[in-house]
Amino acid sequence: MKLHEIAKILDAEILTCSDSDIEIMSACGSDLMSDVMAFVKENVLLLTGLVSPQVIRTAEMMDIRAVVFVRGKVPGNDIVRMAEEKGIAVLTTCEPMFIACGKLYSAGLTGKGV
Amino acid sequence: MAKSRMDLHYEIPADDFARAGEASSSVKKILVQLGIDPVRIKKAAISMYEAEINAVIHGGGGNAEVTIDADKIVIRIIDSGPGIEDLELAMQEGYTTATDEIREMGFGAGMGLPNMKRYADELDIQTEKGKGTVVTIVVYFHQQG
Ligand SMILES: Nc1ncnc2c1ncn2[C@@H]1O[C@H](COP(=O)(O)OP(=O)(O)OP(=O)(O)O)[C@@H](O)[C@H]1O
Ligand SMILES: [Mg+2]
Fold this sequence. Notes:
- The structure holds two protein chains of two kinds.
- Chain A is an alpha/beta fold.
- Chain A is 36% helix and 17% strand.
- Chain A starts with a helix and ends in an 8-residue tail after the last helix.
- By secondary structure, chain B is an alpha+beta fold.
- Helices cover 34% and strands 26% of the residues of chain B.
- Chain B contains five helices and five strands, in the order βααββαααββ.
- Chain B is globular and about 45 Å long.
- Chain B starts with 5 loop residues before the first strand and ends in a 5-residue tail after the last strand.
- The A-B interface holds A 31-35, 37-38, 48, 50, 52-55, 57-58, 60-63, 78 and B 17-18, 20-21, 24-25, 28, 38, 42, 45-46, 49-50, 53, 103, 105-112, 114-115, 118.
- The complex binds adenosine-5'-triphosphate and magnesium ion.
- Residues 50, 53-54, 107, 112 of chain B line the site of magnesium ion (MG).
- Magnesium ion is lined by residues 50, 53-54, 107, 112 of chain B.
């Protein structure tokens, strides 16, 4: 699933100047970063309700190229800039975590065959 | 590929959450520049980051000493914090002494040490109550054996 499709499904705004054509194969939703780091798939989308520079650091270490902040959380400029430097796309959606994950899963982002 | 040995030193500031992970970030960039296999880089980056965060949260800050040579990276994260009282227990998935405050910052799943164990090719932890902790992580750049 392309990032721009994900943005559409979640009615999310892309806050970084990023390539929205990147391919996402699976997704991981968590507010605890070590849970994210236990997730061993490729081309991962991270959904989180945590707004912290550590979200971007975690994405960096994991080679995660796109992060969605759920529940209407809008990260500060420092976080957006940090993500941009590392080539990570940042999105924000008003949907809560459960709904956001559910919508993506129903749309076919099941992580199967990765 | 690195022909000669490279020694790197970083300070890990205590309780500075905005800066936590800078050492790991810097090491990751160097490995990318050296053209190391991305799968190997990810193993090293995640292990080091988990150890670095632990040093910030639990160890009162410390130092990172990193050596890169042609076939491996050796990462030592050293703190002089309270030490780990029961290492076997701490290694279990889900075990944490993190406070709510730490959880609000995104840590405290009790998965950091298990993640290090999973991603590092070799993991050694020396810890003494009241003295501190030294975590040594080795990741090889090529498939071993
Ligand atoms: N450097 C350290 N100094 C003192 N105690 C430590 C250190 N590293 C880990 N510990 C202890 O071991 C426990 C488990 O560590 P681990 O990294 O697995 O989980 P965590 O840090 O609590 O949460 P997470 O890593 O999932 O965010 C910690 O809660 C802490 O009590
Ligand atoms: Mg930890």
